[in-house]
Amino acid sequence: MASELLKDKVVVVSGVGPGLGRGLALQCAKAGADIVLAARNETRLAEVAKEVEDLGRRAVTVPADINDAAACERLAETALASFGRVDGLINNAFATPPLRDLMKVDIDAVRAGFETNVLAALRLTRLLVPALEERGGSVVMINSAVLRHSRRTFGAYKMAKAALLAMTQNLSTELGPRGIRVNTIAPGYIWADNLQWYFNHLAEKRGVPMQQVYDENAATTDLRKLPEPDEVADAVVFMLSPLARAVTGQCLDVNSGEWHH
Description:
By secondary structure, the protein is α/β, with parallel strands linked by helices.
């Protein structure tokens, strides 16, 4: 049963927002895990924590900017102080660099994107490795379908996410002998608040129903639908669970068949 996949495990989730971050926390809780929630927005953390607790699991919130080394240390310390162990880490926090051609994008903005998307994830992972090693734990990096195309203006974002993939693979090689699995998932569009707002904006601009914008985008996928947060999160639950005990160093695309890899 799904409710047993992460039974009594402790999972740390960074970047808890209203879309995928919330979905990750709730699907892990439904699978039986207690959750350590990290984000900058304290109100949102409290809301998601209550939802986790309503599912019968424990939730601890840690307001934190993962670009701040001291905040990451506090996050790791709080997780261990609260539960005494960590079984899983989901690096979900991200930043989208300016969507401009590489020939024009500001180099400092590209560098800032690497700080959040890659180096912050590495920092938090390194802090939790000793705890994960004790539990034979697992790390999942949230990547993006931007890996699969080279559309203009997405270059800086693709650079950061490609670096995250390379980091995942190398960490898998380094940490595998210590019993820690490291994987990544690459979602495409996720049908959550931000995308709904964006599609509504496009619809109003074109003078068409939002459903038409949705259908046009869904038509590019094999399943003719855009994944919802819980569907993407379930792939992460799998990666964290014993069902994936022989899976490491891999990237699992979760995009309803928009891209094949």
